[in-house]
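Margin note: ligand = adenosine-5'-triphosphate.
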Amino acid sequence: MRVDLHELGFRYGDGPWLFRDVSCRLVPGESYALAGPSGSGKSTLLALLAGWLVPTLGQVQRPGIARVGWVFQHPVGTPRRTAVDHVALPLLARGARPARALDEAADLLARFGLAGVVDHEFRALSGGEAQRVMFARAVAADPDLLLLDEPTAQLDRETSTSINATIDSLRSSGRVVVVATHDPDTQERCTERIDLSDESPRPS
Ligand SMILES: Nc1ncnc2c1ncn2[C@@H]1O[C@H](COP(=O)(O)OP(=O)(O)OP(=O)(O)O)[C@@H](O)[C@H]1O
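Resulting structure:
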């Protein structure tokens, strides 16, 4: 199980190149901080890793990756569905019984510091809470490749620290984790860095 990027390049239409010649191998057990200034193409690279966009140049190969989880910076949920229902859904899809799925979903939400909003409707959540609900939902789906877009941008320091610890434990549980982030603490906590801002060395 791995993700291979071969001489990857991308531009939207005939716009400027966001990046070119990105080659690296992403493996389980590591977490990759995708760094670079605003507009450098971090979210675009996540979309390429997810297979939602087709590279302009080069290739993305994902041998052994069956499930991809992607947590957006500005998540969209079902407004009147509760937080716990959002997280229970992938557990039900994986065959859990309803009562068990709800219990597990509530436990996951507690792990993300959301015990207090388990029964709140999605539309009543703050931006940071909504994103963490979707993070918990992505984890519930047991992804091989987990893509996170600015997971700490909307959080206070204490919650960010806890999210960074969660990212690290997901990494060590044998998934490929890629985090687009401006947060120096998240970048520090990740085991590898892919920098879209310059020609700094990239993991091979
Ligand atoms: N669908 C699109 N069509 C044309 N240009 C786009 C499209 N999506 C993004 N862009 C442009 O591509 C560039 C890279 O966008 P992207 O969202 O990947 O950057 P980013 O590094 O994630 O930025 P940020 O840190 O602000 O989230 C930006 O200049 C953006 O305006």
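The chain has a mean pLDDT of 93.
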